[in-house]
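Let's inspect a concrete specimen:
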Amino acid sequence: MTLSKPETYTPTLLTLCRVGEPGFDLDALKKLFTEYQQFLGIDLGFQGFAVELTGLPGKYHPDKRGQLYLARYKNEPAGCVAIYEYNQSENICELKRLYVRPAFHGKGIGKVLFATAIEDAKALGYEKLYLDSLKRLASARKLYDAFGFEEIAPYNENPQPDVYYMELALTD
């Protein structure tokens, strides 16, 4: 009997988990959401952030046509993003909390999170995806532009002076 050469297995460095899937860690996600607010350097109280954080998954729950995503790099929590139903009658969702820890920048994690959220929004049957962001987040703007987002008029109240609003049509 001859032994065959064992197959080489290289584990992926990046894994992405959705709420409810094995490996999803709500506490790690909450920590990333908190780091996101600190990274922005603003109080997100106007968005009900504290209530959102304690009530997760809340509006992002799949049963409510939402989703939470946790990215791990070498099994360490590295980034997050979320989508939720913004306007049921117009079939619009909103993307929130796209964040990648600075130690993991440049590894394509934000792009994977973003692309996955967009694909899931399409699969959920949404027609448009909204987001708002801050002008000082230049790398985020490059990502939005690369995916075909277009700037639109404000769709919510945001007291930040450098905020802008974008949408992506999800139907052909």
Remarks:
- The first helix runs from residue 26 to 40.
- Strands lie at 14-18, 67-73, 76-87, 92-100, 128-134, 150-152, 163-169.
